[in-house]
Amino acid sequence: MENTTLKNTFPKLLTNLLIIILIIIMQRVNAKSNPPPLTQRQTAFKRAKSLDNGISISWLEQTWNKDILSIKPIKNTDFELIKKLGFKSIRLPVAFAYFETNKIMVEKVFTHIDEVLEQCNTYGLKLIIDYHYGNLNDSNYLTETPKIINQWLKLTKRYIRESPEKVFFELYNEPPHMNPKVWKDAAYNIVTAIRKVDKKRTLIVGASNFNSIYELSRTERLADENIIYTFHFYEPFFFTHQGARLGGQPGSNHRGAVLL
To answer: How far is CA 177 from CA 61, 71, 206, in A?
Structure first.
């Protein structure tokens, strides 16, 4: 009796086991051919990695140069060299607030950004468009933030069709030494406005105190997962800024140390 029951049960167990194995195999095959979509945070990590070695191009942030929009200092040969040297991305600082204050049509600025973007596409480079030299601070953020948002909305609509794998937006270069909570509130409002137009673009955001790594370590993430957090690190300052004059800081015109 027991042997008969065992004989009847064994084939059923074997069949069930084979079914389970088959299901596992099919799931693996399906996972390879139809992988699940990346989460927003995974997308941000993947795109951050793709930026790899990058270089910043000084041109459209040169507020001291009155002829900056009438010249083209970056040549095709420069992009060829950038590519040859192994760089994967270009950061383009743009002094949007300066141009707006001086009644320069944003379309004229966009034309030059388009030129850089065209070269980036030609040479397979990623492009980061950076909002440079803003006027935001603790005392004016209620009036200044809407201006920044307005500029980003124009920019976002302009480049909405550009691949989010190739074009990135850097929200604001080096927010000053201001209340971190004020900056976070401003950043949140800017990100929220951009997301109403472009939900897929990866944004780059730094902390207050000039993109301080120390401030960033204390910063709470924004309520958006498709963000790359950035920092600028200049220490030792005397070495990284030798020969420069920045904000009248003592010793900022130091010509550098003698290295033996």
So the answer is: 21, 34, 12
| Pair 100, 163 in one domain | yes
Q: What CATH number does the domain containing 120 carry?
A: 3.20.20.80
> Which two three-digit tokens encode residue 238?
């005397």
Kindly report, residue by residue over 136-186, the tens digit of the pLDDT: 999 999 999 999 999 999 999 999 999 999 999 999 999 999 999 999 999
Q: Please enumerate in sequence order all residues whose Cβ is within 8 A of that of 183, keeping only pairs 6 or more positions apart, or say none.
A: 136, 175, 207, 208
73 and 15, same domain (yes or no): no
| Cα separation, 1 vs 20, whole angstroms | 29
**pTM of the shown model:** 0.81
The vertex-164 CA angle with 44 and 120, nearest 5°, equals 115
Rounded distance between C-alpha atoms, residue 180 and residue 185, angstroms: 9
Q: Which domain holds residue 31?
A: 1-36
As a whole number of angstroms, the distance between CA 156 and CA 203 comes to 11
C-beta separation of 137 from 126 below 8 A = no
Domain count for the chain, please give it: 2
**31 and 105 belong to one structural domain:** no
